[in-house]
Amino acid sequence: MLKRLACRALAALFALCRVFPVQKNKAVLLRHFPVWGALEAMEQALRADGRFRIVKIADWRRPGTLYHLATAGVIFLNNNFNPLAWFNFSKKTKLVQLWHGDGGWKKWGRSVDPAAPVIPYTHVICNCESVRPFWAEGFGLPQPRVLPLGSPRLDMLTRPYGKAALRAKFDARYPQCRGKRLVLYAPTFRDDPAENQALLSHFDFPAWNARFGDSSALLVRLHPKMHGLYDLRGTGAIDLTGAPGQADLLRVIGLLITDYCSLCFDAVALDTPVVLYAFDEARYMAHGRGFYKPLRELPPGPIANDFPALLAYAAAPDTSSAQRAAFRDFHLGEVDGKSCERIIAMLTRKDGQA
Question: What pLDDT was estimated at residue 56?
Fold first, then answer.
């Protein structure tokens, strides 16, 4: 009730700001996610285009936010900001959701909570046509408002880069990794705090070190919601939880081990091998929020349900290229680095359609 009252109060203040005219070429980047991600890619494209005046808002509570939202010609977001569901936007303002993830794997939004607020986005940008129905369901919007123009975030991730230089930079910071294959273990969080506390007990660090310690460097990057839960000293792994440079890290690893984490989308976009370590698959499927596409119908790589199976997959040659390609084609479509260009072209057309 208090949240609803606060949203209505903000909406009333927003209505007062509506007395000011909308500025057609004013683009507001409203961040409501820990990283800029897709917004950073969009900012670079808008600056290169040259037709927009950009306002970046990292904290909506700062003075002037409601004024900027009320007078923007276009507003870009990378996460839901529920108070917007109560705002009466001008018909001249385009409210564009870029989102912080990709594809159509785990369910979210109104697919999980049908009572979640519906924010009046004029445009939601998804990866491709095959995931369009999932995004429309998650946002509670008609499909025509969901446009399969690609991922700005993947534009930035997959643009040309010097892998050798990135690896040399990484080795300079972590000299113990020099000459070794980099293996990243990045599990997602569970809704049950007790399961999060026990998550790494399912990874047998001594067994991993005995098998791969001489040839591979094990890196661990936990979900932001699990920061501070573990002390990895003495495991032989390098803890990169919360460390900056996630994109560069993904560009240099040789294998991603994850479970139900959306980081696998980044890996397949870079054609990096993926192994899913789903030790709790049955429980997760029974008690989690569910998948739009069943996990085993189209996984990005082999699935290991126990640690010996994980060791075997990690030791075996990569034979999952076709599997990754099928996963990428369904969830990401064509990753061509031109998503931001398509979005700007759509927004600057008179009809505002793709």
Answer: 97
